[in-house]
Design goal:
13 helices, 42% helix, two-stranded antiparallel ribbon, alpha/beta
């Protein structure tokens, strides 16, 4: 059975494993394959799907597959327009919300999140005003912020968001001490992104993608002895009590059902969790900033 956890002040019960929709859009997966994949996800007990307007045609694929269903919680993100300078204009955000509604085939969005909004713009507050306006107009049910580091901390402190989506995994543990406790005090639901650190331990040599370099370098130093599968890393990411759900992308039924099985094992024991944290501290991990 897939464990359900409360998504903060939304009072919704979401599966501890959520489906991340980036890969299906970025890898041009066919609609019939996505239909099949998402039906397997729902049959496995997953009831939360996360996407964004910048994930290729992910929103359209998800909308066609499950947009008509009321037993799935769909979250998406805004802030990625075709013209970079227009990303955070109120009219751009509002038009993005309208596009997401059409693509996802929903009368309203369950959750709309600011997607890595620059810290200075977040502090000015206009972008939050826009999301609140959309909520007041019934276009969205809840509003959230996808952020890391100080931007994530500030988003919590405003008290204006229902959820926080942030990075947390065996190679990126800053959120555990920087934001998790504070978010729990504010009764915010925490959605963990990148819980498997992009599975960088499978690369014997530094990967070609520069974005993966920090994770890979940290994994080499941490030298964990349990990286023969994703089971411990996944369970580590969902172990903190503050975490509502962790998002894992998949493009094959095999990977999806495997991760669902791993998530069904639940949180690590306190002893196992602290072993990983002790290794992190010994290697200087507390000095490593979040990768985001």
């Amino acid at each position: 059975m897939m464990e359900l956890r409360r998504l903060g002040r939304t009072n919704l019960q979401v599966s501890v494993l959520g489906f991340g929709g980036a890969e299906i859009g970025q890898q041009n997966i066919e609609q019939k394959s996505v239909d099949y994949l998402l039906n397997i996800a729902l049959d496995s007990g997953i009831n939360i799907i996360d996407t964004a307007e910048c994930y290729g045609n992910s929103e359209e694929l998800i909308g066609h597959a499950v947009g008509h269903r009321d037993d799935v919680f769909i979250s998406t993100k805004c802030g990625h327009a075709e013209e970079p300078n227009d990303n955070w204009k109120p009219e751009t955000i509002l038009s993005g919300i309208e596009r997401s509604l059409k693509r996802l085939k929903r009368d309203w969005l369950d959750l709309i999140q600011l997607h890595s909004c620059p810290f200075d713009l977040l502090k000015r507050g206009e972008v939050i005003d826009v999301l609140e306006k959309a909520r007041d107009e019934g276009k969205v049910r809840f509003i959230g912020c996808s952020a890391d580091g100080q931007a994530a901390k500030y988003a919590i402190e405003t008290g204006r968001f229902d959820t926080l989506q942030t990075s947390f995994n065996i190679a990126d543990q800053e959120a555990l001490t920087l934001t998790f406790s504070l978010a729990r005090e504010k009764d915010m639901g925490i959605i963990v992104k990148r819980p498997l650190a992009n599975v960088v331990w499978k690369h014997k040599e530094k990967p070609g993608n520069p974005w993966l370099h920090k994770y890979w370098e940290r994994i080499q130093k941490l030298d964990y002895g349990f990286l023969d599968s994703c089971v411990v890393p996944l369970r580590f990411a969902l172990s903190p009590a503050a975490v509502s759900t962790v998002l894992v992308g998949s493009v094959t039924p095999k990977h999806l059902t495997r991760n669902a099985a791993y998530a069904s094992y639940g949180a690590l024991t306190a002893y196992r969790f602290m072993q990983i944290r002790t290794r992190w501290k010994k290697c200087g991990g507390d000095e490593w900033p979040g990768v985001g």
